[in-house]
Write a structure and sequence with these properties.
By secondary structure, the chain is mostly beta strands. The protein is built from 4 helices and 33 strands.
């Protein structure tokens, strides 16, 4: 009798353990048998389907499943998938595919019961992107929506994991790693966010590299949820790393920080080179000043991280350097009139300075929202003059032209020669 009682109790306990919901994983790579599998561009009527694996009911709008969940925000404004969960959820993890876009515009907005709680840029392949759920939205039955960000590229999600909330202290940081990229002496800020639950302690924050800085080393859970800014200053050309650490209630989370600084400042007096733009990899949009030699062709789709050359069109130019590196530069309006090589074939071979945002263009680092600055012949006469006969210009260290410099350190430019000088 005792053995039967113990066996019955063991079976009961096993059953209770099995009944605990735990984390839920929706594997979109195997969901074609039940999910929406196509979408007509312009259709704005949601379709409701229930997962045979998790029994979760999803509303698909501008969204479908092939071998992954495809949110086609590039073709359907406000494309989304929405659902509620049978568990208290503290975190949603979106795992990207091996072929997803790495463009920084590949972003989704995340809503809970109609309130926006996060924006996540899904710009790395085969990566887990963590979305921390604020405590007030963790209760089962909350409606979550994953929506393509405005003017965003399409997103490819292989797996969604819904992490069950617990009563133990928990901490989750949304980003596992963050990349910085700056011109020399420039500063860039990046936001880190996360959630802490079931503790009232402040969170200790530290970073082990003095070129990275924090506004505070002790923050509240609310401040972490809103996001704190990590600032990096590029003091010398090269690469460096650091570890950002969060500690609370015996828990530790880290974020890997990496940074690249190029040798030029991105100012008019000291513009970025073509090689600099390629090295920065669009991680810092600017805007910055950029110099290069106008090519005799225009930009086509990238190969190995650099644009290719195609027959000339008016909408872009290529800037080259002496080593054959190239970037595509989008031109429009007055800048197109001045720079395009279809109407101005003599522009090819000229060294110019432009100003614009560093963005992905034809699948590689490039320049958009471009303004022409200088370098082309004026009134039919080339402005390629001997350095000793060229006018002298002075700029402060922020790259702003100074007409009458007094008592300080300045950048002196004469023709193609740039030096730093002390004016007394």
């Amino acid at each position: 009798l005792m053995k039967k009682t113990l066996l019955s109790l063991a079976i009961l306990l096993l059953g209770l353990g099995a009944a605990k919901a735990g984390n839920i994983v929706e594997d979109w790579s195997t969901a074609k048998d039940w999910a929406v599998t196509s979408w007509t561009k312009g259709d704005t009527t949601p379709q409701t389907k229930t997962s045979t694996a998790t029994n979760i009911s999803y509303d698909f709008m501008g969204t479908y499943v092939s071998s992954y969940l495809f949110i086609q925000g590039k073709n359907t404004t406000g494309a989304y998938i929405s659902y509620s969960l049978p568990i208290d959820c503290s975190e949603i993890v979106l795992t990207t595919t091996s072929g997803c876009s790495t463009n920084n515009k590949s972003a989704v907005n995340v809503y809970a019961d109609g309130n926006k709680i996060s924006t996540v840029v899904l710009n790395k392949t085969s990566t887990d992107f963590k979305i921390s759920i604020p405590a007030q939205y963790q209760t089962k039955g909350t409606v979550y929506k994953i929506e393509s960000n405005t003017n965003s590229y399409n997103q490819q999600i292989e797996k969604s994991t819904y992490v069950e909330a617990t009563t133990d202290p928990t901490m989750s940081i949304a980003q596992a790693e963050i990349g910085f990229a700056t011109p020399l002496n420039a500063t860039q800020g990046q936001t880190v966010s996360g959630t802490v639950s079931n503790t009232t302690e402040n969170i200790s924050v530290s970073v082990d590299n003095s070129n990275f800085s924090l506004a505070s080393t002790s923050i509240t859970a609310a401040e972490l949820s809103e996001g704190i800014v990590v600032t990096y200053t590029g003091k010398a050309a090269g690469k460096e790393t650091a570890t950002l650490k969060f500690e609370v209630a015996g828990l530790t989370q880290t974020v890997a920080l990496s940074a690249i600084t190029v040798a030029n400042e991105g100012t008019e007096a000291n513009p970025l080179t073509v090689a600099d733009v390629l090295a920065l990899q669009n991680l810092n949009p600017g805007p910055f000043y950029v110099t290069g030699i106008i090519g005799d062709k225009t930009a086509g789709n990238a190969t190995d991280g650099m644009v290719t050359e195609v027959p000339p069109i008016k909408s872009n130019i290529i800037l080259k350097d002496s080593e054959g590196k190239m970037i595509g530069v989008q031109v429009s309006g007055e800048t197109r009139t001045i720079l395009n090589i279809v109407d101005n074939p003599s522009n090819a071979g000229q060294t110019v300075i432009v100003k614009g945002n560093l963005e992905n263009y034809f699948g590689a680092p490039g320049v958009k929202n471009t303004e022409y600055v200088s370098g082309l012949p004026t009134n039919g006469i080339a402005d390629i003059v001997a350095d000793e006969n060229a006018p002298v210009e002075y700029f402060n260290l922020q790259g702003i032209r100074v007409e009458n410099p007094e008592n300080g350190l300045y950048i002196r430019r004469q023709g193609n020669k740039v030096t730093k000088v002390i004016v007394k």
